[in-house]
Amino acid sequence: MSRVTIAIPSKGRLKEQTEAWLASIGHTVRQIGGERGYTAEIEGLDAEVRLLSASEIAQGLIEGSLHLGVTGEDLLHDQAPDGPADFEVLKRLGFGGADVVVAVPQAWFDVDTMADLEAAGAAFRKAHHRRLRVATKYLRITRRFFAQKSVGEYRLVESAGATEAAPATGTADVIVDITTTGATLRANGLKVLDDGVILQSEASLTRSVRAPWSDAAETIVASLLRQPRTEAKRPI
């Protein structure tokens, strides 16, 4: 069997936080080739380490080309054809948090729940002869959640830019997007539905269910699941 393949984020705050977490459990990351390199070594682990985008990590874990990786749960859920059955979250890491939410214009005073949205969709179609447009980058997550909530009077519009601006620009009526504080949504005249939090996401150590596993690979998993080191207290 080939070496265990681990992927960590290649840039930004998520990369820094992942490296800090690994250091806290005794596994310092050394990037090969300097800041422009896309491979690394993790101290104490006999593994091939790749630096990839969070989206590429999610895809690799689902396909089985990666054994382990750190990425956002929102990306895992959205890229997985069969949902949570396509991956295994081993540990939520406490950073990179964001909620995937359904948001509508604040001016829709009588739309506060997903049931209200379905009723509004039926009325909207009758009045405007078209379905409500829902802008999102999270196509699979949105379809699953809307089906669970029995909302069918809509059509998806794949968002390529700032999703929160879609209702104001007239390209969509409703959005599904990520938010941390809700400030950006409010600034764009939007509100989150009362039962419209689809997923509370954060960065997670995740294993592939399709990659081949060995005893050596399980040893690496055990090492990554150890508790962070704490400094010894000085005697009084």
Account of the protein in words:
The chain is α/β, with parallel strands linked by helices. The protein contains eight helices and twelve strands. It has helices at residues 12-24, 54-63, 73-79, 114-128, 139-148, 166-169, 183-187, 215-224, and strands at 4-9, 29-32, 39-42, 47-52, 68-72, 87-92, 98-105, 132-136, 154-158, 174-179, 190-201, 203-208. β8, α5 and β9 form a beta-alpha-beta unit. α3 packs across α5. The chain is elongated and about 65 Å long. The model is unreliable at 231-236 (pLDDT under 50). Its EC number is 2.4.2.17. It comes from Hyphomonas hirschiana VP5. One of its GO terms (biological process) is L-histidine biosynthetic process. It is an enzyme of class 2 (transferase).
Largest sheet: 7 strands, mixed
Structural class: alpha/beta
Tell me, what is the CATH class of the largest domain? Alpha Beta
- Strand portion, in percent? 25-35%
- The multimeric state of the shown protein is single chain
Amino- and carboxy-terminal Cα gap:
52 Å
- In the sheet with the most strands, the strands line up as 2-3-4-1-5-12-6
Radius of gyration: 21 Å
Number of strands: 12
Q: Mean of residue pLDDT?
A: 92
Poorly predicted sequence stretches spanning 5 or more consecutive residues: 231-236
Helix content: 25-40%
- The string of secondary-structure elements, in order, is EHEEEHEHEEHEHEHEHEEH
Give the CATH superfamily of the largest domain. Answer: Periplasmic binding protein-like II
CATH fold call of the largest domain: D-Maltodextrin-Binding Protein, domain 2
CATH architectural name of the largest domain = 3-Layer(aba) Sandwich
| Tally of separate domains | 2
